[in-house]
Amino acid sequence: MRHGLAARLPRAALARAEPRRRPGDDPRLLRGREHRGGGGPLPRGACESRRHAARHLPALPQIGLLRAPVAEQPFDRVARDYEAIHERSLPPGVHSEEFVRQKAETLAPLFAPAAGAVFDYLDFGCGNGRLFAALARRPGPRALLAAGRLRLCGYDPSAESIAAAREIVGPLPVALASRLEDLPPGAAFDLVVSCNVFHHIAPAARPAAAATLCGLLKPGGRVLLWEHNPLNPFTRLVVAACPFDRGVSLLSLPSACRLFSPRGFRPAACAYVNVVPPGWLRLPGAARLERGLARFPVGAQYWVLFARDA
Q1: What is the pLDDT confidence band of residue 49, given thresholds at 50, 70 and 90?
Q2: pLDDT tens track for 65-97
Q3: Residues 6+ positions from 263 with CB-CB distance below 8 Å
Q4: What is the pLDDT, as a whole number, of residue 39?
């Protein structure tokens, strides 16, 4: 979304309250992530394939995410076939890779270090690592990699997802870890990105997660969150129907801002996206529609870039 980076929400939109927590939400613990590298909310009925593939799974348990290692993460069970399940669940003409490409297009302009400096990047909840591969195809990150000025790191609590990520990133120089403490010693980042992770973190634990992300930044570093928009009723319908999303509590953009404001971070830019599937944005009319509605809580998802107050 090259056009979305400058979009900001009107004050009224930022003032909206977060939707009420649903029955079954557990505020005490954290749960594994659903994103696995891409894909926005799916159309009604699009989760039938997922339900078929995962019908013998119980509701995925909420478990520790930030620092405590665990024997098994929920997405260990589906790490190897997650993409196939997701692809089958999409409607005709819409592909999982479109959502990954959309994220890479939005993020790539942020890879702008000072002259001669190295840019450090962390994908918090990287899933199978497809976003790394998509970023490496964008001109800015690709040039930094060629010059040896880009360090890529990925964290995901699912060891099986990390194993899949090692295969997908191939020769790309990416440091991958299933525990934060296993990231390179002393690592600090210019940009930390977390895509479709926070709705799997229980509400009571989200402030600690936000504090963790802020604590991983260099001076002047930024955090970008990408999440489902709970103000879109279609999004809520789809999430409620998906077995991978049982028990989650969606996070509104205003509530995301409230997580980071106590740490001195404010939204530098934000946009609601996916009014239409990303692949449709090649059509002039669809792109105009998406741009025109970026300030309003209409899209199925949103992103918000946080920077520390000057």
Answers
A1: very low
A2: 444 334 457 677 767 777 776 666 666 777 778
A3: 210, 211, 214
A4: 42
* Least trusted range by pLDDT, from 177-181, 284-288, 302-306: 284-288
Predicted structure pTM score: 0.78
Give the domains, in start order, of the chain with CATH numbers.
Answer: 2-308 (3.40.50.150)
